Amino acid sequence: MKLRMTISAVLAGITLGLFATWLTVVRVVVPGGVENGPWRTDVGAGNPRGNPYTRARVALHGFLALNAGETVYYTATHDSEGRRLDGRCVYEISGHDPDARWWSITAYGRDEFLIPNPANRYSVSKTTVAREPGGVFLVQVGGADETANWIPLAPGRFSLSLRLYNPGPRVVFDPAHVVLPTLKKVSCP
Amino acid sequence: MNPRAPQLGAWLVTTLAIALLVHFGTLYALPRLVMRRALRKMGEPNSMHFGRVPTAASRMVVRPSPDILYASCPFDLSSGPLRVTANVPHSTYWSVSAFDAATNNFFVRNDREVTGDSIELLLVQRGQTLPLSDRAPEHVIVFAPSRRGVLLFRTVIDDDRHLSALEALQRQDRCETVRADPEAHRSGQVSPRLGRRAVWWRSPPASFKAAVPDHFRAY
């Protein structure tokens, strides 16, 4: 190969390689793990024997995540109808306590940090959520403060994390089929 | 046949080979770079760093939990093993976890796995030795796969009214390098070099012998 062709092959190879990493790890176009309704989890997080894609994704999007035996992390970026979560809309999360010693649901902005709000409210958890008779809970995400269980939002894309600390064995071994809270869009301006 | 076909083939093979190399190279390097950057931000190694309850202003680590009180101990085992002493509240979820230079979670222990009100860990690398005085039977010995990494302490804030008590408890936690003791080395009072399979020392005290394997757990 002539020098000019070699240089162009090297440049094209570097560009292609970086683009593949950006697509799979930064943009996460093909997310790993399993789906459970609007929630998605990868139980390979934190595992020293996990695959390199999971390790790189967790380093960028869930740094210092515990392994699945200790904590299972579910993330939602879309609602139950498959539409991307939008901070201008109002959503409702409902369900019973998931199978874990302790759980929490937290909203994060597009930058993956907590969403600033005057009330400094970012999450609900097993120990702070208000329950209806029968143990079911309803959480309002976004909109104005109308309920005891309220997570405020700001305009723009957002995502939710459902953390299950000391999860039950079914969560660890069959995370796609355990019963999790539902996430529905209520209204949009 | 197009006379340029072999050249095109060589170009494609070279491009693909370099693309694969760059792709897997960056996959390998990314977690290590993220950890290195985080360790730099966390501050002095082998000492405790106590955080405040995360808010929207917390920018150290992505996706922090606002219901958890975090403390960290970035470690660097190049000057010796690390001794960690931590209080364990049993009223709420608590854990200590260790992450290596590639961000792998190689060790975790929670409050339900600790019987007493505190835990002592010795974080060592293979080939290191410990003064015998530092090998009490109740120590948990953890093998670190890399010289550098971080220990993270999590305490769930189950109720805001418990925050100050949980914070006060966490602030007593300690991590420090176990300094090489020249006197112990001269008198032979050190363990042999530690390895995952053969962890032993000269003349183990009777109390330790009796405790094996119940209290001695190597990871």
3D structure, described in words:
The complex is a heterodimer of chains A (189) and B (219). Chain A is α+β, with helices and mostly antiparallel strands. Chain A is 21% helix and 29% strand. Chain A has 3 helices and 10 strands, in the order αββαβββββββαβ. In chain A, the strands form 3 sheets. In chain A, strands 3-9-5-6 form a 4-stranded antiparallel β-sheet. In chain A, strand 1 and strand 2 (39-41) form a beta hairpin. With 219 residues, chain B is an alpha+beta fold. Chain B has helices at 5-42, 163-170, 182-186, 206-211; strands spanning 49-50, 68-76, 82-87, 94-99, 105-110, 118-124, 140-143, 148-156, 174-177. In chain B, a hairpin with a 5-residue loop joins strand 4 and strand 5. Chain B is extended, with a radius of gyration of 23 Å. Chains A and B meet through helix 1, helix 2, strand 5 and strand 9 of A and helix 1, strand 4, strand 5 and strand 8 of B.
Summarize, please.
The complex is a heterodimer of chains A (189) and B (219). By secondary structure, chain A is α+β, with helices and mostly antiparallel strands.
Task: Give the secondary structure arrangement, pairings included.
The complex is a heterodimer of chains A (189) and B (219).
Chain A: H1 3-26, E1 34-36, E2 39-41, H2 52-61, E3 71-76, E4 90-95, E5 100-109, E6 123-125, E7 137-141, E8 150-151, E9 158-167, H3 169-173, E10 182-187
Parallel strand pairs in A: 7-8
Antiparallel strand pairs in A: 1-2, 3-9, 4-7, 4-10, 5-6, 5-9
Chain B: H1 5-42, E1 49-50, E2 68-76, E3 82-87, E4 94-99, E5 105-110, E6 118-124, E7 140-143, E8 148-156, H2 163-170, E9 174-177, H3 182-186, H4 206-211
Parallel strand pairs in B: 6-7
Antiparallel strand pairs in B: 1-2, 2-8, 3-6, 3-9, 4-5, 4-8
